[in-house]
Amino acid sequence: MTQGRLLVVDDERSIRDILAQVLGYEGYEVATAASGGEALNLHRQRPFDLILLDVKMQGIDGLDTLAQLRQQDNNVRVVMISGHGSIATAVQAVKEGAFDFLEKPLDSDRLLVTVQRALEHRQLLGENSRLREGLARATDARFAMVGESEELQKIRDLVERVGPTNARVVITGENGSGKELVARAIHEASARRAGPFIEVNCAAIPHDLVESELFGHVKGSFTGAVADQSGKFEAAHGGTLFLDEIGDLALNAQAKILRALQEGVIIRVGDSKPIKVDVRVIAATNRDLAQDIQEGRFREDLYHRLNVMPIHVPPLRERARDIPALVSHFVSALGSGPGMTPKPFSGDALRRLQRRRWPGNVRELRNAVERLLILAAGPEVTEADVDLVLAPESGPPIEPEQLAADAGDRSFAEFREDAERAFLVSRLREHYWNVAETARALGMPRSNLYNKIEKYGIERER
């Protein structure tokens, strides 16, 4: 059975008590309200999955309450109840957005069937919405893992293996290296992809608000807590919670996360009632957690609970082979923006970019590409533009020998073919694997592109 939180609204106490008892026996979490105003306040504090609403009540009647509920929350499911039922009233209720209309005296079997149908309908609409969001994320250029280096391919292989499981993952890597993209890829490869993906930057939350942000709070639990508020764990129910920079969390918050992982429950700040949550946690950090454990800044038991599958994202300077594909990707993504013109980068410009150390990694490269597109005066971005626009780096450049080492034992012809294959894959992704559009963007006959796809054994990604 689809479970849920229900609110029974009726100005007759006996009706409220009977319905709460019947629905409670069926395993639902039930609250009651004696008026429309009370119902609106309760739903505003913590939204319900379904509301059973009497039509005739003192003060705000049921139809007015329904209209205000729909203004407050367009996704709310409401079943109207009336002892003075008429076809006109039922039609008006449905027009106002009610899911169904029941007449008193209520038949318990019909009541339970209606409640179940309403909850299933709500769940289905939610899943459809999240699937559409997931599809948009999967085809959104912002979330693509771009590149064909051996290092990135190893990460893709790990994502493919760990994604379909419920295993927790710790992603390590420098700032800007793409840890969030890996977390999103894991979510999209999982059975939870129709559920929410909730990101929390642990380093950005004030220490005194971390527990409230993660676990929620009840009204009056601290100064400023003017209403009940759910936390990120509840928001991620049925999906994935991405805890970015988890190494910056205080020890007391770490202890509560450990309990949530062990028991599958959380407790809001100021409350004593446990709330069940079904959440897959993916954590990321740029810190050395093993060192933090030794120095008492991170709990060892939480580390082992989280670190079922470690994934390390190497810095961009260790996968310079990906830079041409990343530049092409960013040019396509940024070039269509207001006042922007897509420009090709010369071979010398790309090689100059490959020799930089990129302490800010992929994020810094994206900013550099955007700056070069704005400031480069000619029809293409040249090596001179790179030297003029980008500030000199403090450290030594990456030497050609290091770039050559990335080629391994390949011959020049093999290295060139690999680079061409990576370029074509990147452009096909940008055009969502539409061969005609990709060929048009490349200024290449479609037949030539098909020949190259066959030559390099390029297969469409699913």
Keywords:
5-stranded parallel beta sheet, elongated, alpha/beta, Rossmann fold, 12 strands, Helicase, Ruva Protein, domain 3, 4 domains, 462 residues
Structure explained in plain terms:
The chain is α/β, with parallel strands linked by helices. It folds into four domains: 5-127, Response regulator (Rossmann fold, 3-Layer(aba) Sandwich), CATH 3.40.50; 142-314, P-loop containing nucleotide triphosphate hydrolases (Rossmann fold, 3-Layer(aba) Sandwich); 316-398, Helicase, Ruva Protein, domain 3; 400-462, Homeodomain-like (Arc Repressor Mutant, subunit A, Orthogonal Bundle). The protein is 48% helix and 12% strand. It contains 20 helices and twelve strands. The chain has a five-stranded parallel β-sheet with strand order 2-1-3-4-5, with helices on both faces. The chain has a five-stranded parallel β-sheet with strand order 7-8-11-6-12. β9 and β10 form a beta hairpin. α13 runs parallel beside α18 (412-430), α14 packs across α16 and α19 crosses α20 (446-455). The radius of gyration is 28 Å and the shape is elongated. Residues 135-141 have low confidence and may be disordered.
